[in-house]
Write a structure and sequence with these properties.
The protein has three domains: 75 residues, OB fold (Dihydrolipoamide Acetyltransferase, E2P) (Beta Barrel), CATH 2.40.50; 87 residues, E3-binding domain (Dihydrolipoamide Transferase, Irregular); 204 residues, Chloramphenicol acetyltransferase-like domain (Chloramphenicol Acetyltransferase). The chain is 33% helix and 23% strand. The protein has twelve helices and 19 strands.
């Protein structure tokens, strides 16, 4: 008896999603609760589990289709799930034709390896681009699936420094296809924007069209934080089971600065200003499909260990795709750390309805003047983008000065100065 697979509840106020990927094809064996499809909502990707064990039946919708909650997207048939063999269906080329397609088969070999394992489109493109064998890479995603980060790390490690699979055919007489430069080919690829990317694009443009955006900069000497972190990181990890990172300092410093300058933590609602006596800090973390911004709730009441544990949990769940809509709902202020990617300076865009976002950047040694002497210090640029309709320049500058004071003298975080 066939069982319908329907779109599950997607979260509060979310009524539809986009089918991002089929993880099981018709004829594949399916275990109960095994993911068979991936759905993309405006903020997160989530997987659809099989309601029972059996055989994957007909796909009712195609990748890229918009589906509503409760809609039937596939069927699960009863059976053992043994996929039918296609060997008997494969035609045998005549001898004179076989020679002409040998090179083409060698070129296709790489793609065959990539598609023999369930890969997302972005991961598959990365595998083919670098000519690596996905079966040789350990996946860190949900159920051991490969992520873009896994492939990139594999390539960086040097393990991928070997001829692509298509070139290995040369040992048996197969010739690799001519390079694009030699043939004059100029290839293009069109890829449908994910629902997440569409939402990000729309919201960022709305922010530019609605808010009076302005960015103010300052720089901060990271010497004290680096020394404090170096001195206590081992004891911190031993006691709390988590590494002491830089984000803990910036989150706590931001909470203190937001208390001193409440307009930075406020938002405009119609003709009213909504002030918050709590700090729900949105932190940008990297996920396979792009950046997401889960929220640290009541960060002002958290310890350093609580903050670091929460951020670490967000990072793991972003990588395996298990973040939920509830994790990203709300937020009164955002911190985005472009420094982990090497950014020296940027003008971040606010995340509506929030009114401000703090951009962190890379730490680099620079010559600065202290007490009349030129010295080299590890410096970081801070950027605060804000809605000038609500936040005046004086308030933005004051906020950054409070941040600078707390980071350059971390003891202030302990005594609330």
């Amino acid at each position: 008896m066939a069982i319908e697979v329907t779109v599950p509840a997607l979260g509060e106020s979310i009524t539809e999603a986009t089918l991002g990927e089929w993880l099981k094809q018709p004829g594949d064996a399916v275990a109960a609760d095994e993911p068979i499809a991936s759905l993309e909502t405006d903020k997160v990707a989530l997987e659809v589990p099989a309601p029972q064990a059996g055989v994957m039946g007909e796909h009712k919708v195609a990748v890229g289709d918009t589906v509503e909650v409760g809609a039937v997207i596939a069927m699960i048939e009863a059976g053992s799930g043994a996929a039918p063999s296609k060997a008997a269906e494969t035609p045998v080329d005549p001898p004179e034709k076989a020679a002409s397609v040998t090179a083409a088969k060698a070129a296709d070999k790489q793609d065959e390896v990539a598609t023999s394992i369930t890969l997302s489109p972005s991961v598959r493109r990365l595998v083919l681009e670098h000519g690596v064998d996905p079966s040789q890479i350990s996946g860190t995603g949900k159920d051991g699936r490969l992520t873009k980060a896994d492939v990139e790390q594999y390539v960086k490690s040097g393990a991928a420094q070997q001829p692509p699979l298509a070139e290995k055919g040369a040992a048996t007489g197969a010739q690799p296809p001519a390079a694009s430069a030699a043939t004059g080919n100029r290839n293009e690829e069109r890829v449908r924007m994910t629902r997440l990317r569409q939402t990000v694009a729309r919201r960022l443009k709305e922010a530019q069209d609605t808010a009076a955006l302005l960015t103010t900069f300052n720089d901060v000497d990271m010497t004290a934080v680096i020394e404090t972190r170096s001195k206590y990181k081992e004891l911190f990890a031993k006691k709390h089971g988590v590494k002491l990172g830089f984000m803990g300092f910036f989150v706590k410093a931001a909470c203190m600065a937001l208390k001193d300058v409440p307009s930075v933590n406020a938002q405009i609602d119609g003709e009213e200003i909504v002030y918050h006596d709590y700090a729900d800090i949105s932190v940008a973390v990297s996920a396979p499909n792009g950046l997401v911004v889960p929220v640290i709730r009541n960060a002002e009441a958290m310890s350093f260990a609580d903050v670091e544990n929460t951020i670490g949990d967000f990072g793991k769940r972003a990588k395996d795709g298990s973040l939920t809509m509830a994790d990203m709902k709300g937020g009164t202020f955002t911190i985005s750390n472009g420094g982990v990617f090497g950014s020296l300076m940027s003008t971040p865009i606010i995340n509506p309805p929030q009114s401000a976002v703090l951009g962190l950047h890379r730490i680099e040694d620079r010559a600065v003047v202290i007490d009349g002497e030129i010295v080299v210090r590890p410096m970081m640029y801070l950027a605060l983008s804000y809605d000038h309709r609500l936040i005046d320049g004086r308030e933005a500058v004051t906020f950054l000065v409070r941040m600078k004071e707390a980071i350059e003298d971390p003891a202030r975080l302990l005594i609330d100065l």
